[in-house]
Amino acid sequence: MMLSFRHIFAVAVTAHLIWIWIDTPKQVYFCPLNREGLTNWADENCYWSPSYAEAREKFVSLGNRLREQLMISQDKNASLDLLDVQSISYNIAGDPEYYKSLQAIDTSTLQTIAPERDTVDAMLLTMRVPEDHVHIIHSSGTHGVEGYLGSAVQIRFLHELFLQNEALLMQNKEQEKASADGNGKVQKILLIHAVNPFGMRHHRRTNENNVDLNRNVLAPDKTKAVIERDANYFGYVDMDPALNPVDSRTQGRRENLPELSSFDTIHTFMKEMGSIASVVGSIVKIIASKGYSNAKRTIVSAQYHKKAGVFYGGSGGWENSVIAVQHAIDEFAGFSLSSGNADAQSKVFWIDVHTGLGKFGSYALLRKETTENNLWTLQLNTFVAGLEEKQASSSKAVSSGYEETVGFINGGVLCPPPSCFAITQEFGTIPGVAVVLSLVLENKGFNWGKGEFAYLTSNAFQPQRLSWRRTALRGGSEMLRAALKFQTR
Questions:
Q1: Contact 87, 111 (CB under 8 A)
Q2: How many C-beta neighbours within 10 Å does residue 466 have?
């Protein structure tokens, strides 16, 4: 008996889901967020969060615990490498004009947690260092659902800093501040948590307006150019039937997005088997006709004409999250990068964490080529090349197709050279064709209300497998630690 494509596909995906279930954490981890509880986190799974609300709670709570440690150190006249902690929270549902009047939360004030709100949260740490180091920006969640790894890296960093401070405070010894102050040299570390909080909460890559924030950050002249260019410039219109499938059952965008559950995952998969198989067939045909490289270039180059389509970069103007990030960098942290008033002696290294492309658990480091020929840029290129050599993912292969992609969150608009050097740290998850499939189906479900496919993007961009979590978290943490040690000369 000959099996149909649908049957073969069903067996293959079912086997894959079973394997994911076997290699997924089953234990519920107890990760208290008070000072005593944080000293007893026994497993690195505490760095991970199953939801945006929990990730934000951990991020904010760790900031509060660091503030408490600073206040204790002042009472004991103890010396910590951590000199200051400030936080700021941007409600993306509000008018971005109010960002200008936002007041930072200083060291003496604890930040409140509002789990029901979608907020971009930024934390600025000022550290005592012995030599001149680059300042660091580390951002997570530009692509929403991809934010769980970047969040875990940030939470691990904050937790390790908490434990380091706790050990010093336990010694209860006054240190010679003259020998510890690093001759007045400081390093600023700006952590930006959940750039796209709506996408992270609902396991979407794009935001509440269906905009890909990593294609949205354009200068005015570039915005005009991409909006006015031929919609089929990269072949998007040719691929539209496969990328944006619709049928007679579509019902209009859902307003209330459901929470994910294991039962919903299995039930939806079985119910929507025909739709999934149909989309798979369409995508495979497109790739076969255009070639993988050309199809990838069409997809990642984005489009600016179809609001309900996948890979939509917006139709002019920055999204609220982008405006929040700009304010956090220029005003809150005081880097003044996009304003053109950056300190000529101040250097900033920006790491934006993403998932989806490359070999499973390994990372590639993506950066735009620059004509800058100054010493620190050359040093950073050498530094990055050294990290790339240790990875299974090829940065060249992962970055292929992005040659004409514009609007990156950490591109030249918000991170202009020579003051700022930007890296996208991209972690591999599942095969690229499967990643595209998950995006197409999730976008269909979100914009046309037929099918609940958020579980597909969740599995595609934040695999629950223990092996992936360990490898990816280690790679993200190693990158941040290495960047923190990079000295300017």
A1: yes
A2: 13
Strands, E assignment, 92-149? 119-128, 135-139
Longest dimension (CA), the chain: 82
Asked if 47 contacts 61 with a C-beta cutoff of 8 angstroms, the reply is: no
Name the phi and psi angles at 139, rounded to 5: -120, 145
Q: Are 164 and 170 in contact (CB under 8 A)?
A: no
Quick one: 337 exposed, middle or buried, by C-beta within 10 A (0-12, 13-18, 19+)?
A: buried
Whole-angstrom distance, CA of residue 216 vs CA of residue 406: 8
Alpha helices in 172-272 (DSSP H): 177-180, 197-201, 220-228, 236-243, 262-271
Residue matched to tokens 């750039």: 195
pLDDT of residue 262: 43
Question: How far is it, in rounded angstroms, from Cα 447 to Cα 435?
Answer: 18
According to DSSP, the residues that pair with 353 across neighbouring strands are 425
For residues 187 and 90, the answer to whether their CB atoms sit within 8 Å is no
308 vs 317: CA distance, rounded Å:
17
139-173 pLDDT tens trace: 999 999 999 999 999 999 999 999 999 999 988 65
From CA 81, how far away is CA 77, in angstroms rounded?
13
